[in-house]
Amino acid sequence: MFFYVETGFSSDTHRLQFIPARREASHPAVTETQDDEDNLQDQIRRRRKTEWKRRQGGQTFLDHLIINVRGGNGGDGCVAFHREKWKPMGPPSGGSGGRGGDVYILPTPNLTTLSSIPKRIRGAAGANGQGTWQNGKNAPPTIIKVPLGTVLRELLPGDPRRAKDEWEAEEEGLEGLGPEDRRAKLRDDRWVHYPRYADDNINRDVFKQAEASLHREERARRWARKQRALSPINVDLDKTEEVVISDDAPLGTGRQEWLGQLVARGGSGGLGNPHFLSPINRSPKFATRGHEGERITLSLELKILADIGLVGMPNAGKSTLLRALTGGRAKTEVASYAFTTLNPIVGVIRVAEDGTFEGALQGERVFEETAIEEERLRECELSETEDQDQLLRSEDTSDAEQRTGHHFDIHETFRFTVADNPGLIARASENVGLGHSFLRSMERSLALVYVVDFSRPDPWDELRDLKDELEKYLPGMSDKAHMVIANKADLLGGDGDQKAVDEAREKLRRLEEYVKTEMVVKTADGERILDVIPASAKLSQNTKKVVRLMQNYVQQARTAQV
Ligand SMILES: Nc1nc2c(ncn2[C@@H]2O[C@H](COP(=O)(O)OP(=O)(O)OP(=O)(O)O)[C@@H](O)[C@H]2O)c(=O)[nH]1
Ligand SMILES: [Mg+2]
Fold first, then answer.
1. pLDDT value at residue 499
2. PROSITE patterns, from UniProt (predicted)?
3. For residues 143 and 263, is the Cβ–Cβ distance under 8 A?
4. Does ipTM exceed 0.85?
């Protein structure tokens, strides 16, 4: 007779409609055949492995993170009755629960890495309602600060890294239960009863009606949530927003602070028993519990901002070049094995008006592998302790070195940043080597510079692979390239005999020819031919020219942006 018999959530057939299989099936990542499925699993495994490899150095720098966020749960409603002298049957007086806290993500310029962000975040819970009509307090919002330039993406159903949402989690908790137990558990999760009245309530029609209307409301909520899930969160948090309130805003609206991007709403509070008061139910002995907050899995990616990105195969000398350009200040490791650099590292290049840059001030300096340099430094320190005079002298020199940098402050007229990247190899898009996911940081850089090992027999092949991989990462990405640095040029030319020098010249000419014919970049106003510069990062040869050209690209791009 009652409506709930057909549609009440105690009906098992009805609940089956909410199993998440339908959402999963609509996701493109889920493939039909077993082969494709295996392929996908394989790809995911490889991606994880390469990500792990990149982070194993224990760096505090993190540019990719997956977090599980939950909005705060709502507080429970309260079942209570008013008690007063001479009033034997007081009215129901249970307060409602407070709302659970929302979770926001706020970009801030003060952070530079994602490493301080917890992997699991839960909004604050709303307070429970209490007797004498006292409603529970709403929970304050939780604000998670992330660095500017973070990209937020919601993981979709079908992604193995995604945690269950609130409905799926509930369904999981009910697994293996018979229909009776299942119904009882669902009821327990939704209702608060007056002490010792649980059994009595369940058999009363008023409760059944309330249960049915709660179910209808829940269905509407799920529908709304599903609609929201159709447009998943995908935002680039690269600027902070100011909330501007017009001058004629009503008095008292005040200035509202921008809390950031709302990612998970808190659950609403449960209703106290006065809400169930009706002409046929004068003494409602039940109240509802608060709703659970939304659950969502987000992937955070940090795009570091550097004006210029170095792209090259492993061991081409990218890290050595960055150290040479920054005078050794960039703390990036150099070694003779592939994949020394695991994460992008940014160095600042300071240039004076006459084109000298800070690194060039130190005169003839050889940028060796970091382990060798450290060894040399240690030896130096040891001998210093032995000889007091030498100690004094070495203090002098270190002072002088500091002063070079210090004096440079007055001369500096231009400054730009260069990012040293992990090595990119052919088939990186299939996650060979370190993959190419680190290129996301380069998406927003103003210019890219190829670094190739010129002492290898066929540097042009390297260039072709590099360009291909850039295009595979993001079509059009290779159009940002401006220059090819033919590094390790010191290894060519032998001892200066004419034959070897001629050979080196011929090789350079061939490289230039290749760049002119195969690597032409299309720009808005025609075509651009990349500059080819032979250089030696280790011996700081020709680095001044490299810096001058880099400065030009940055200046052009900056003025074009304005
Ligand atoms: N002779 C010579 N050797 C160089 C030059 N530049 C770099 N090297 C050496 O090449 C090796 C690799 O240098 P790295 O700077 O670590 O190369 P990388 O491109 O950063 O390599 P990954 O970080 O693995 O991608 C080191 O042994 C350097 O000493 C150069 O101009 N001349
Ligand atoms: Mg390196």
1. 83
2. G_OBG, OBG
3. no
4. yes
Following DSSP, what letter does each residue of 406-473 receive, concatenated? HHHHHHEEEEEEEEE-----TTGGGT-TT-SGGGGGGTT-SEEEEEEETTSS-HHHHHHHHHHHHHHH
Q: Is the dihedral of CA 393, 398, 400, 401 positive or negative?
A: positive
Our mutation pick for probing the ligand 1 site, out of 454, 538, 539, counting the most ligand atoms within 8 A of Cβ, is 538
Judge whether 441 and 304 are in contact, CB under 8 Å.
yes
Shared-domain flag, residues 320 and 277:
no
Nearest to 224 by CA among 122, 294, 152, 154: 294
The verdict on the CB of residue 311 being under 6 Å from ligand 1 is no
Q: How far is the CA of 29 from the centre of ligand 1 (A)?
A: 40
Residue nearest to atom 32 of ligand 1 (CA): 488
Contacts of 471 (CB under 8 A, 6+ apart): 477, 478
Ligand approaching nearest to the C-alpha of 336: 1
Residue type, 375: E
For 469-522, the pLDDT digits (tens) are 999 888 888 888 999 999 998 888 767 778 888 888 888 999 999 988 888 888
**pLDDT per residue as tens digits for the range 51-80:** 766 655 544 456 678 899 999 999 999 999
Task: Give tens-digit pLDDT for 423-432.
Answer: 888 888 877 7
Distance in Å, CA 317 to ligand 1 centroid: 3
pLDDT digits 0-9 by tens, 11-58: 333 333 333 333 333 444 444 577 888 888 888 887 777 776 665 554
120, two tokens: 């699991």
Task: Answer yes or no: do 294 and 346 share one domain.
Answer: no
What pLDDT score was predicted for residue 406?
A: 55
Q: Going by C-beta distance under 8 Å and a sequence separation of 6 or more, which residues neighbour residue 445?
A: 305, 306, 307, 308, 309, 419, 480
Atom number of ligand 1 nearest to Cα 369: 29
Average pLDDT, the chain: 81
Question: Looking at residue 244, what DSSP letter applies?
Answer: -
**269 and 392 share a domain?**
no
All residues with CB under 5 Å from ion ligand 2 = 319, 340-341
302, 319, 334: which is the final residue of a domain?
302
- Between the alpha carbon of residue 77 and those of residues 98, 288, 292, 403, 544, the distances in Å are 9, 5, 13, 69, 72
pLDDT at 61: 55
Kindly state whether residues 274 and 354 are assigned to the same domain.
Answer: no
- Mean pLDDT, range 197-225, rounded to an integer: 90
The verdict on 143 and 172 lying in the same domain is yes
pTM more than 0.80 = no
Q: What is the pLDDT of residues 335-351, one digit of tens each?
A: 888 888 877 788 888 88
52 within a domain of the structure (yes/no)? no
pLDDT value, residue 10: 35
Looking at the fold, whether 405 and 290 belong to one and the same domain comes out as no
Tokens representing 182?
Answer: 């299942």
Would you call 469 helix, strand, or coil by DSSP?
A: helix
| CB neighbour class for 545 (10 Å; exposed up to 12, middle 13-18, buried from 19) | middle
Q: Do both 298 and 354 map to the same domain?
A: no
What is the CA(112)–ligand 1 centre distance, in A? 27
Task: Please tell me the distance between residue 238's alpha carbon and the centre of ligand 2 in angstroms.
Answer: 28
CA 535 from chain centre, in angstroms, equals 36
